[in-house]
Each structure stands twice: as structure tokens, then as C-alpha cells.
């Protein structure tokens, strides 16, 4: 049987603008889940995640990484779960790990995740995000579920790039990726926009 | 207008949906349920000043908030999760 591989959330759209002020890539092939602790089970869930994934589930809007997995706080007792191991074995083992302590919803085909960076990232993002992304208000590891140009999105800040520029990741419903791209490409065009991973199917 | 969500922090009004008065729904099993519903629907208080109301943080943590708002100034006096 042919291997099924994930396709881009943004096939056949024009990309980029001359210059290098802003960069974007789509993090394809991720296992994505939403996870909500069941009533009275948060403590049990936390200890299982701490033991098996070496991660403390954030109690606030924050991004934390564990062993081959990352978590973003979306709301009280609710998290976004990401892993680069989007395999049936991973999904099965994570489900059995949390067992009856949380409800899991597979969103691997439901969300798209983009990574944006470059020296003018904040200027471009500020045109759509109604929150303060300045380094004093939004540190590495901070996250926020909000809107961008009327599109529901979650944004978190990763470690800065080696050149000192900020690096953010944005998740949103995959079906709205084109609308996001329309806004983002227009907003970033004046700084120059570079795609870092042209999908093979283009 | 900005509302402080207990989880997300201070956010713009556009992230929220207003759901109205915090007053509890009348008991439909009460003997005078019809009168109580009539009063709840048509004879609501309309205070000029602090008002307890429900807001849904639709474009944030998707939590229901109990918000105390001054209807004259839109000052947000207090917020908490509705279930807390």
C-alpha cells in the first residue's frame, strides 16, 4: 500500500515577497491533539505526564516541551498536544498513557501549525494579533489563545533564533489556513517574506 | 473595553460574547413557574451601576465568566469563572 503522507494546508498559493524580514514555515506531519482532564483527574494526569513525558503540564497559557512532545495551555485543564511522531503507535501509546484521566481528541488533520521568525516578525504579527507580543509582555514559553485577523488562533513563543530575533508558532484550524495566509502574506510583504520549506507538491 | 479573563489575562471585548444577566433561571417545576418566567424574561432589573453578567470567552479559553460591570462607565469591577 502506498505510504500516506500529509499534504500542506496551503497548496498552490503564491508565496513570498522579496526581502528577508519575515520567515514562515509550516510544521507538517505533526501529531496534534487537544486534551482535557476529566473531572477530579487533573492530579493523576499531571503525574502520568510528568513521569512518562518529562513535562509539567502548564497551569497557565504557556508552552512546555517534554521528551518528544510539547504541550500548550489552552484553558483551564485543557491543553494542545504536539509530537513529531505522527504514527498510529504514538497515538495509541499516548491514549493508553492518559487512560481515564483525560479526554483526547485527535486534531492532526484539523489544525495547521506555522512557525514564523525574522527581524520584523513582531511588526507583521502586530497587524493582526490584538495582544501585546513585545518581549516584555510575551516571553519565550508564553502562549495565548486569541484571534488573528478574525481567525481563532493559538500563538506561543519559542526560544529566540541564533541571530536574536523572536520565533513564534501559530496553530489554527487548517480550513482557515488560506485566510490566515492571505492576511499574513499581505502583512509581511513590506518587510520581505521568505518561505523556508516549499512543499514538494508545488 | 477590556475584560480580564482569569486564565488568559486582559483581552479585548472582541474575543467575548455577551450572554446577559447572571440571574439564575427560574425553577420550571415551581408551582408559580409561569409568573417567575414572566418576571425573569420581561421584568428584569436594569441597574445604572454594577451589574452581574455572563460572558463567554469564545475566542480565548472558551470559559464562561461572571463579570461585574458598571453599566454607566463599562468599568469591569470583577471577573471570575462562572463555575468557581
UniProtKB/TrEMBL annotation, chain A:
Domain of life: Bacteria
Pfam families: SoxG (PF04268)
Polar residues bias: start-end ranges: 1-11
Region annotation Disordered: where it falls in the sequence: 1-21
Designated name of the protein: Sarcosine oxidase subunit gamma
From TrEMBL, chain B:
GO molecular function, one term: sarcosine oxidase activity
GO BP terms, alphabetized: tetrahydrofolate metabolic process
Organism, as annotated: Bradyrhizobium ivorense
Keyword Aminoacyl-tRNA synthetase appears in the UniProt entry: no
Phylogenetic placement of the source organism: Bacteria, Pseudomonadati, Pseudomonadota, Alphaproteobacteria, Hyphomicrobiales
Listed transmembrane segments: none
UniProt xrefs under Gene3D superfamilies: Folate-binding superfamily (3.30.2270.10)
UniProt entry keywords in alphabetical sequence: Oxidoreductase
Entry-linked InterPro entries: SoxD, SoxD_sf
EC number: 1.5.3.1
Enzyme class, first EC level, given as a word: oxidoreductase
UniProt name for this protein: Sarcosine oxidase subunit delta
Amino acid at each position: 500500500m502506498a505510504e500516506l503522507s500529509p499534504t500542506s494546508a496551503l497548496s498552490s498559493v503564491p508565496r513570498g515577497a522579496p526581502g528577508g524580514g519575515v520567515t514562515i514555515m509550516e510544521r507538517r506531519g505533526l501529531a496534534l491533539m487537544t486534551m482535557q482532564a476529566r473531572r477530579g483527574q487533573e492530579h493523576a494526569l499531571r503525574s502520568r505526564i510528568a513521569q512518562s513525558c518529562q513535562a509539567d503540564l502548564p497551569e497557565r497559557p504557556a508552552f512546555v516541551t517534554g521528551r518528544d512532545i510539547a504541550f500548550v495551555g489552552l484553558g483551564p485543564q485543557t491543553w494542545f498536544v504536539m509530537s513529531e511522531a505522527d504514527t498510529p503507535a504514538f497515538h495509541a501509546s499516548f491514549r493508553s498513557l492518559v487512560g481515564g484521566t483525560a479526554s483526547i481528541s485527535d486534531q492532526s488533520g484539523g489544525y495547521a501549525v506555522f512557525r514564523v521568525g525574522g527581524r520584523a516578525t513582531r511588526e507583521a504579527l502586530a497587524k493582526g494579533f490584538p495582544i501585546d507580543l513585545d518581549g516584555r509582555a510575551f516571553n519565550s514559553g508564553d502562549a495565548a489563545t486569541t484571534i488573528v485577523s478574525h481567525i481563532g488562533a493559538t500563538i506561543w513563543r519559542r526560544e529566540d533564533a541564533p541571530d536574536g530575533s523572536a520565533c513564534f508558532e501559530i496553530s489554527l484550524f487548517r480550513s482557515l489556513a488560506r485566510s490566515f495566509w492571505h492576511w499574513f502574506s499581505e502583512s509581511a510583504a513590506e518587510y520581505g517574506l521568505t518561505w523556508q520549506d516549499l512543499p514538494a507538491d508545488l | 473595553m477590556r475584560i480580564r479573563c482569569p486564565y488568559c489575562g486582559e483581552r479585548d471585548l472582541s474575543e467575548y460574547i455577551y450572554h446577559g444577566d447572571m440571574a439564575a433561571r427560574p425553577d420550571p417545576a415551581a408551582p408559580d413557574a409561569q409568573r417567575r418566567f414572566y418576571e425573569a424574561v420581561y421584568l428584569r432589573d436594569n441597574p445604572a451601576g454594577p451589574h452581574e453578567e455572563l460572558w463567554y470567552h469564545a475566542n480565548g479559553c472558551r470559559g464562561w465568566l461572571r463579570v461585574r460591570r458598571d453599566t454607566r462607565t463599562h468599568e469591569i469591577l470583577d471577573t471570575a469563572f462562572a463555575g468557581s
